[in-house]
């Protein structure tokens, strides 16, 4: 249509308009969340950079709440968008699980979360027509036990629920919940059962939640329900593990993925068969024996789980590999129901390599391990890791519920409902700490000061982004960003502070922890997107776990066992990195080479080593060489300031030259209070920061951080263990500490005598002093002595016979002058009579030797 001249301008306009429409359509965030275009962005950083595409909020969804139980049923709303009530709103999780959503009277869209068998961030998409899923977001699926009690059903008397039907436990059961979390006036109360079926550790091993029956139908949603339990039908009473669910009564019985609240998993004692109520101990023993047979047929996971830390101090300090067990937490009052005698337990964060098994370690008030060999409250390993193990979904890796299936319900069978713990502890014995090796710690603190893994200390006040730790073999990288500090009047000081730390291991999510401006709080980013800890303190991510109990504390844990602790206080960030022994000789960066050789800690990125006594200027130059590149940077640049100062600028700012030392001027009014404050270990760092920043608060914060690091190193000092000692049969022992210097004493029951060592001490080499201890019954001793007496009498008779025989032979020899024989110990050749007499003599000696040996054996026994 463009061949006539008078239409050329119109034709060009149409073409340009079509291009504009095409470009506009291409720059929509529909199905494009996380992408960046030339003129706008659908990336999470677009809000702070103010370059979001116009429809960013419409297609890249914010939700509230953003987390809930992996059992599903949470109703979350879509923020910053409104919808027509007539639309067909559906939600799709993990690209496969569909749930029915709705639009409320205010035009707000809602989704219902599905029942999942995994924890962590779950991607979801939303459709307004049931066909095109062009809007997306993410949902945090949470281990049910880690969920706040406000968001689940609570049993009014948990002990009554778990022991119902055992002697003297009966009556009505009561449960409570928050009614507003169920969008209905009337509800049903349902029982669901959990099981795992198929051949263990095979492809057909599956986890299953199944609706069993309704306990209360169409009851008021007032947050309280009580009932008198009845024995269930046989097909249902076979289920002994399950959860209660409250859901709208308008939904069909057992409807999946509807608005609901769930209780935690529990032993369904209250509906078990009549045989359980008649003889709960006998019923449980049969179950325990069956479990014992099943365990014997399954692979042994005990050989691959990590050993426990030797002391409570080690267990609490080794944050890269162990974390508090919420069922026995010293910070929460030590309510250790399943571990009487313990005050604190920890769990290994990572599952075992092949079977995904878990480890638990418990400690008493003295800081010593509590072992099952000494107490029913001892720590126990788990076939199913309580927190699950990636990739989750299948047995025995389902968070929480696999653990209940293989490790908890069997504890009820063998220990709580019957007194047969010997079966349970045969398969779940406590691990001691003989092979435990504590991690090594390095730190960055103050403005900033560095303490390497081998203990070298130095100060580096450069401005830029640097490699703090890198391990090519483990594909582990920790990077630090420093920025100039400011005096109280706002002017820039010639000193810097650590302001951000970014890290990754292998193909894990990238975690960045930042110091917020003006406040002592930390901000956490995952793959350049801000993480909120307002609802959950622990978040499972891809290849990494993050824990933030409060805004000033963040701990990051990687599969290698590396732990990164970040703390905010005094206007600065303090960093501690904990490395397991496996990384020995596999590290480089500003925190040095971890190899017990401090002399090589100042090794540059090109392998050149400078002396430890180098000048401050030479150390500054060395540190500048560890600046990273944009190509290897893990940091987020989501502001104009960060782009200009760090992304487009040199990674090490050569124009920023700090003060390499501070002068202690006697005329300085700050000097005397500084010297009074800065004493003992860490005094030099404290003085440097107080005087350079003109702030006692700054100096004190540095001093406290240094002392905290010193305490961590002390807690992680190696401890020698000799291993558990059993009491002798028919006796007992005093002492349950098995570390170097500890002594265990042994005694025997009445009617028994002790043989071996009565007292044994753990020695420096990891061996016990003395000999094995035995208790021998007095009647056994009498039998032994009687036997010895009989043997002695027989020996005397034999000797008499020998003497008499020899006497007779001597008389015969006198009558023979042509031959002389000697029969003392050896037989020479001679005539038959003399040879026979020698043989008799030799045989007699052998008999004597035999009886003497028998006597010795009997005495030893």
UniProtKB/TrEMBL annotation:
Domain Sushi: 720-777
Keyword terms, alphabetized: Disulfide bond, Membrane, Signal, Sushi, Transmembrane, Transmembrane helix
Membrane spanning stretches: 781-804
Leader sequence residues: 1-26
Top-level taxon of the source organism: Eukaryota
Keyword Phosphoprotein tagged: no
InterPro entries: AMOP_dom (IPR005533), C8-3_MUC4 (IPR056619), Epithelial_Barrier/Signaling (IPR051495), Ig-like_fold (IPR013783), Ig_E-set (IPR014756), Somatomedin_B-like_dom_sf (IPR036024), Somatomedin_B_dom (IPR001212), Sushi/SCR/CCP_sf (IPR035976)
Disulphide bridges: 748-775
Gene3D superfamilies assigned: 4.10.410.20, Complement Module, domain 1, Immunoglobulins
Name used for this protein in its record: Sushi domain containing 2
């Amino acid at each position: 249509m463009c061949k006539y001249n008078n239409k050329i301008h119109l034709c060009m306009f149409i073409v340009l308009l079509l291009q504009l429409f095409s470009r506009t359509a291409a720059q929509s965030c529909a199905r494009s969340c996380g992408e960046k275009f030339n003129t706008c962005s659908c990336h999470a950083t677009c809000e702070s950079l103010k370059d979001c595409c116009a429809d960013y909020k419409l297609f890249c969804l914010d939700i509230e709440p953003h987390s809930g139980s992996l059992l599903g049923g949470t109703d979350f709303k879509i923020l910053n968008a409104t919808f027509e009530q007539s639309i067909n709103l559906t939600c799709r999780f993990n690209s496969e699980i569909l749930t029915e959503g709705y639009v409320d009277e205010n035009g707000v869209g809602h989704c219902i979360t599905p029942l999942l068998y995994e924890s962590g961030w779950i991607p979801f998409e939303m459709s307004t027509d049931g066909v095109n899923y062009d809007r997306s977001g993410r949902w945090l699926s949470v281990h049910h036990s880690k969920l706040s009690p406000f968001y689940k059903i609570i049993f009014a008397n948990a002990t009554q629920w778990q022991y119902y039907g055992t002697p003297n436990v009966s009556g009505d059961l009561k449960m409570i919940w928050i009614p507003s979390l169920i969008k209905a006036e009337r509800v049903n109360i349902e029982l669901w059962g959990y099981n795992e079926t198929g051949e263990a550790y095979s492809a057909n091993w599956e986890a299953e939640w199944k609706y069993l029956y309704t306990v209360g139908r169409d009851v008021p949603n007032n947050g309280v329900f009580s009932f008198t339990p009845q024995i269930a039908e046989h097909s249902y009473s076979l289920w002994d593990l399950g959860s209660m669910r409250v859901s709208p009564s308008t939904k069909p019985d057992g409807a999946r993925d509807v608005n609901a609240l769930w209780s935690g998993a529990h032993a369904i004692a209250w509906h078990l068969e009549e045989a359980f109520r008649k003889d709960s101990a006998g019923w449980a023993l049969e179950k325990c024996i069956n479990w014992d047979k099943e365990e014997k047929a399954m692979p042994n996971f005990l050989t691959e789980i990590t050993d426990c830390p030797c002391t409570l101090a080690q267990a609490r300090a080794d944050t890269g590999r162990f974390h508090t067990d919420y069922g026995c937490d010293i910070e929460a009052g030590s309510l250790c129901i399943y571990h009487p005698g313990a005050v604190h337990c920890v769990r290994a964060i990572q599952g075992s390599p092949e079977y995904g098994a878990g480890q638990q370690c418990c400690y008493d008030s003295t800081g010593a391990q509590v072992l099952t060999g000494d107490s029913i409250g001892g720590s126990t390993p788990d076939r199913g890791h309580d927190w699950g193990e990636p990739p989750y979904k299948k047995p025995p890796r389902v968070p929480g519920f696999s653990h209940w299936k293989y490790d908890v319900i069997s504890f009820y069978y063998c220990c709580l409902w019957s007194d047969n713990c010997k079966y349970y502890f045969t398969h779940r014995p406590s691990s001691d700490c003989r092979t435990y090796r504590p991690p090594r710690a390095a730190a960055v603190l103050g403005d900033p000061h560095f303490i390497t893994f081998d203990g070298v200390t130095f100060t580096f006040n450069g401005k830029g982004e640097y490699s703090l730790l890198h391990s090519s073999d483990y594909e582990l990288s920790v990077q630090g960003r420093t920025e100039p500090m400011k005096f109280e009047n706002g002017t820039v000081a010639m000193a810097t502070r650590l302001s951000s730390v970014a890290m990754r291991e292998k193909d894990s999510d990238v975690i960045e922890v930042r110091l917020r401006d003006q406040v002592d709080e930390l901000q956490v980013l995952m793959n350049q997107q801000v993480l909120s800890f307002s609802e959950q303190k622990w978040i499972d991510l891809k290849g990494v776990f993050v824990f933030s109990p409060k805004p000033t504390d963040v701990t990051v844990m990687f599969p290698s066992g590396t732990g990164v602790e970040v703390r905010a206080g005094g206007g600065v960030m303090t960093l501690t990195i904990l490395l397991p022994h496996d990384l020995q000789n596999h590290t480089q960066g500003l925190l040095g080479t971890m190899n017990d050789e401090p002399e090589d800690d100042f090794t540059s990125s090109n392998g050149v080593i400078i002396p430890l006594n180098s000048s401050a200027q030479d150390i500054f130059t060395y540190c500048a060489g560890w600046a990273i590149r944009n190509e290897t940077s893990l940091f987020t640049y989501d502001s104009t300031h960060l782009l200009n100062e760090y992304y487009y600028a040199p990674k090490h700012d050569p124009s920023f030259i700090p003060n390499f030392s501070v002068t202690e001027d006697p005329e300085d009014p700050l000097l005397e209070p500084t010297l009074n404050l800065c004493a003992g270990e860490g005094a030099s760092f404290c003085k440097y920061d107080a005087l350079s920043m003109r702030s006692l608060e700054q100096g004190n914060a540095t001093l406290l951080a240094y002392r905290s690091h010193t305490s961590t190193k002390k807690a992680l000092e190696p401890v020698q263990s000799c291993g558990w000692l059993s009491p002798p049969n028919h006796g007992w022992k005093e002492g349950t500490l098995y570390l170097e210097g500890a002594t265990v004493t042994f005694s025997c029951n009445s009617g028994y005598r002790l043989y071996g060592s009565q007292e044994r001490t753990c020695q420096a080499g990891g061996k016990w002093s003395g000999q094995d201890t035995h208790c021998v019954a007095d009647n056994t001793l009498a039998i032994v002595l009687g036997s010895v007496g009989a043997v002695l009498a027989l020996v005397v008779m034999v000797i008499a016979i020998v003497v008499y025989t020899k006497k007779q032979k001597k008389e015969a020899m006198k009558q023979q002058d042509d031959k002389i024989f000697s029969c003392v110990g050896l037989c020479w050749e001679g005539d038959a009579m003399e040879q026979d007499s020698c043989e008799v003599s030799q045989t007699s000696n052998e008999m004597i030797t035999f009886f003497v040996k028998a006597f010795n054996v009997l005495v030893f026994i």
